[in-house]
Design brief:
The chain has about 160 residues and is an alpha+beta fold. It is built from 4 helices and 7 strands.
Length: about 160
């Protein structure tokens, strides 16, 4: 379990609106490549984009987020974040299940995503969930802000997909 977090089955996954913008920005700020306030405003206003949140029902705290875009034939997972102290509790897996279900309802042929090549935990989860590697974008991501190994090089993006 996470650092002192008690697992709550009372996690509410739902579509978020602009009322959640500042919470989304705050949670996303910890990522290596956070979105700007303008990017969040655009995503929340776009009818083809669904912004999902995992809300702890005990205190209505946003603990996870996901952004799913509806494309002409596919759906694209553009962001998936879980608050660091809530990681390794199955929240990302539960959110992915919800997003796959939504992409299926949309009639999407595939669910697409890209992930940093060095994000081993995310890659393992995506593979367990049936995603396969479709290719790479070489040196796509800027150096990770949180690099603990001292390496400050650009990272490949691993392109992945699965049928919803």
């Amino acid at each position: 379990m996470g650092d002192g977090v008690t697992w709550s089955t009372e996690m509410d996954f739902r579509h978020l609106d602009d009322d959640w913008r500042f919470s989304l920005i705050g949670l996303d700020h910890a990522s290596d490549t956070p979105w700007s306030a303008e990017q969040w405003s655009q995503a929340l206003a776009d009818q083809r984009v669904w912004v999902w949140g995992g809300i702890d029902s005990r205190d209505a705290t946003l603990v996870s987020l996901a952004v799913l875009a509806r494309l002409p034939f596919d759906a694209e997972l553009q962001r998936l974040e879980v608050r660091p102290d809530w990681r390794r509790l199955g929240i990302a897996r539960r959110m992915l299940n919800e997003l796959c279900h939504e992409a299926s309802k949309w009639g999407s042929e595939r669910l697409l995503l890209e992930v940093r090549a060095g994000n081993e935990a995310a890659l393992a989860l995506y593979r367990q969930m049936g995603f396969v590697e479709d290719g790479r974008r070489r040196h796509y991501y800027p150096p990770a802000r949180n690099a603990t190994d001292g390496i400050r090089e650009r990272e490949d993006a691993v392109l992945m997909s699965r049928h919803p």
